[in-house]
Each structure stands twice: as C-alpha cells, then as structure tokens.
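Annotators were shown the component list below and the corresponding predicted structure, then asked to write short factual statements about the assembly.
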Amino acid sequence: MKTIPNKINILGRDFTVSIRNREHDGTGELASSRYAAQCIWIEKDCHIQVQEESLIHEMIEMLNTMLELDLEHHKISSLGVSLYQVLYENKLSFGNME
Ligand SMILES: [Zn+2]
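Structure shown to annotators:
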C-alpha cells in the first residue's frame, strides 16, 4: 500500500507532496511545507514511518496556518507524533487510499 500520496487535500486546497533529498537542497529538515505554494516536502532518506509521521506533522502545520490556531511548534510536534501513533497502531485509514 502506498502511504505517501503525491497530492493531499487540506480544507479544500490541493497540496503537492514531493519526496526530496535534504542534502541536495541543503535544508537539513526531515520535512517542510509552504502554504502559499501548497507544497509539502518529505525527506527521501528516512524510514517510511518517519516519512508518514512527517506527513502528519506537515498536515497539522498547514491546519495551524489555515485555521489560525496559533499552536506553538512543540504542540504541533506532539500532536503529529501522537496522532500518527494512534492511526498506525490501530491500522486506521479512511476514504479510498491506494
Ligand atoms: Zn514543523
């Protein structure tokens, strides 16, 4: 099952999800996202679980921006790790994932 989609819809906005090499672009981050560009980047050389958790983290980052939640970054990180653990351990998926 493919777990990192190429596109993801967040609150009606279509975001492009790209796998990248952080050493190539020099960011040093495991993942990043830009609301204005509607892009999410995930590091290529990570375990699939780190990639999946990073995707959840960036989704929360975008929700934080779009909904003006003003969450501090450590809260976004805590929510990302926690939500991923619950989804993963309970084998939860919704909709028609391919
Ligand atoms: Zn972050």
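Statements collected:
1. The chain has three helices and four strands.
2. The chain has one domain: 7-89.
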